[in-house]
Design brief:
Blueprint (H helix, E strand, L loop, with lengths): L1 H11 L2 H62 L6 H12 L5 H19 L5 E8 L2 E7 L16 H8 L5 E6 L12 E9 L6 E10 L1 H7 L8 E6 L4 E7 L2 H4 L4 E3 L5 E3 L6 E7 L6 E7 H52 L16 H58 L2 H18 L5 E3 H19 L3 E7 L7 E3 L4 H12 L6 E9 L3 E8 L15 H13 L4 E6 L5 E8 L7
Parallel strand pairs: 13-15
Antiparallel strand pairs: 1-2, 1-5, 3-4, 4-5, 6-7, 6-11, 7-9, 8-9, 10-11, 12-14, 15-16, 16-18, 17-18
Helix pairs in contact: 2-8, 3-4, 9-10, 9-13, 10-11
């Protein structure tokens, strides 16, 4: 049922809406495929180009960093190029105290080695050579190089790292030293290592070369990748040596854990970002760069936005033209539907007024011709058929009328034999009123009128049977104006009295109930009389009941009559009549 209703709504849907829907579906799907595929290809190539350019830049950057680290390593190796410096360091590292003259000699020799670097490179910050609690050499370009007295250098992380490196240089991340008398809070990067005996490999002292972070900043900052970025350097243990980010959001992508005074460890590589890594040649370090994938995607997504915007303009233009030209079909169809709907109501005075030069002009003219021919046909055939149907209804009613009069007069005769003059008088007056109803010319009456007649009839029968018969009529007020054939209920009530009530000796009841729902009115007529066996009794053999069924079907083809009974339990008759005559179409 639900499927049939849906199909009905679909057929009633306006053609203009269907044409518009077909137009949208036929253009939207191909467009989305074209935009999606082309934008995806452009997005892919755009990302590949960015990654390729970034990879080349990172390769060049790794080379520059490698050269810079080698420069720092060369500075840390300068003491090996002077026998005088090595002699002084070996001597001072073994002595418990350092004399002023020895310190002066070492400073003079090292200053001579470092002079070309100290005065030509702006990134050189300081140099420090220490042994346990002794400072062998301290020099700086920017701060007072006097260190804190009696400082235990073995407690410094970088000192321990240098000893454990066994002769290799160790890179120290950006930090602020806290062992000078005066600290400027300037961050620096450092390279530490040990000065050893070249023959025995025994360490003499630890050397620490400091450089400004501006050196790395110069390499790793200022490049525009057209997306938020983060550049960082890690060693083979994933310790973070240097990091620089275009904004704090990119820096937050790194999962950094502080594992020492200067040591920070990268716990995991960032996710949801484009990541490129390049090893720094001849070192244990790796240079990384991450780019914000969302920014890259958003720039690619502009292709989608532009495509959708252009489609929206083209779609609105095409929709306007489609609506304008489809009116040449939909408007005539809508007018034709209106004309046909008026004809369905029986009004043949309407005609279709076609627009000149429109596509359905010829169809409209043919519809007008059809209306004229249909009106003529109805006058000739349909009116004649109605007259024949009314004649048949009158013939069937004429069969019921004598039957009713015969049975009613028999009841009055019984009163004569009983010599009950008062009841006979009331019965004759009641018969007079009922005869006026029976002999009316109208073939149909309202249900209210029919039930009034049945009430009078039952009152007459109650006069005859006295206390043996009781009846009740309950009616839904909304059903009182329902049009029904005249004398449609009397045969059923009469059969209930003659075949159900009369054979019994005890009191019996007849109940008539009328209910109304959304589609039909239901007349429920029941008695508690003798009843009959449905398997052996043909109820349609009764002339009165057969005529009632036929007459009701003439007026309401979709109406139904259901009769059920069993011996000793009475009889029930249910008439279901549509609320509207149009529901029978």
């Amino acid at each position: 049922m639900l499927f049939l209703r849906s199909m009905k709504r679909y057929r009633q849907e306006k053609l203009a809406v269907r044409l518009t829907r077909y137009f949208i579906s036929s253009t939207l799907i191909p467009f989305l495929l074209i935009v999606t595929i082309s934008a995806s290809l452009m997005d892919y190539h755009y990302k590949q180009d960015i990654l390729l350019i970034t990879d080349g830049y990172l390769e060049s950057l790794a080379t520059n960093v490698s050269l810079y680290i080698k420069d720092l390593q060369q500075v840390a190796l300068l003491p090996y190029f002077s026998n005088e410096v090595m002699t002084q360091i070996r001597k001072l590292s073994s002595e418990e105290s350092i004399s002023f003259s020895d310190r002066t000699n070492l400073e003079s020799a090292l200053d001579s080695l470092l002079s070309s670097i100290r005065y030509t490179r702006n990134d050189f910050y300081s140099a420090l050579i220490v042994k346990d609690q002794k400072v062998l050499y301290a020099s700086s370009n920017y701060i007072n190089s006097i260190t804190i007295p009696n400082h235990d250098w073995t407690l410094e992380d970088w000192y321990q790292n240098a000893i454990q490196a066994d002769g290799k240089e160790v890179f120290i991340p950006p930090h602020v030293p806290n062992y000078y008398d005066f600290t400027d809070h300037e961050e620096r990067i450092s390279l530490v290592g040990t000065i050893r005996d070249l023959r025995t490999r025994n360490p003499y002292a630890v050397i620490k070369i400091d450089a400004l972070t501006s050196s790395f900043d110069r390499f790793l900052q200022g490049e525009d990748f057209h997306a938020p970025s983060c550049i960082y350097i890690t060693d083979h243990d994933n310790h973070l040596i240097y990091v620089s980010a275009s904004d704090d959001a990119m820096l937050s992508l790194l999962d950094i854990e502080k594992t020492g005074e200067y040591e920070r460890t990268l716990k995991a590589q960032p996710k949801h970002s484009s990541h490129i890594a390049k090893p720094i040649k001849d070192t244990d370090y790796t240079l990384h760069i991450i780019l914000d994938s969302f920014t890259i995607w958003f720039k690619s997504a502009r292709i989608y936005f532009i495509g959708i915007f252009l489609y929206a303009i083209a779609f609105m233009t095409a929709l306007y033209l489609n609506k304008r030209f489809s009116r040449r079909i939909t408007d005539p169809i809508a007018q034709l539907r209106s004309v046909l709907a008026t004809i369905e109501k029986g009004d043949f005075s309407v005609h279709y007024l076609p627009e000149p030069q429109w596509e359905l002009q010829e169809l409209g003219q043919r519809v007008n011709q059809m209306i004229e021919e249909l009106e003529k046909t109805i006058k000739i055939t349909y009116v004649a058929q109605l007259a024949q149907q009314e004649a048949e209804n009158r013939a069937l009613l004429s069969q019921i009328q004598p039957h009713f009069l015969f049975n009613t007069l028999n009841g009055l005769i019984a009163l004569i034999y009983d010599q009950d003059i008062s009841k006979l008088e009331n019965g004759l007056y009641g018969l007079s009123d009922m005869l006026h109803y029976v002999l009316r010319k109208e073939m149909t009456v309202t249900l209210q009128e029919e039930l009034k007649f049945i009430a009078d009839y039952l009152l007459l029968q109650q006069t005859r049977y006295c206390d043996k018969l009781e009846y009740q009529i309950i009616v839904d007020p909304e059903s009182e104006h329902l049009e029904v054939p005249r004398l449609i209920l009397q045969p059923f009530v009469e059969n209930a009295i003659i075949h159900g009530i009369e054979p019994k000796t005890e009191k019996s009841h007849i109940t008539i109930k009328v209910k109304r729902n959304a589609h039909a009115s239901i007349i429920h007529l029941s008695d508690d009389g003798a009843g009959f066996d449905e398997t052996t009794t043909d109820v349609m053999s009764s002339v009165g009941i057969a005529n009632c069924v036929h007459r009701l079907s003439l007026l309401y083809p979709t109406s139904t009559i259901d009769i059920s009974s069993s011996i000793g339990k009475g009889c029930t008759v249910i008439l279901t009549i549509p609320n509207n005559r149009e529901d029978n179409v």
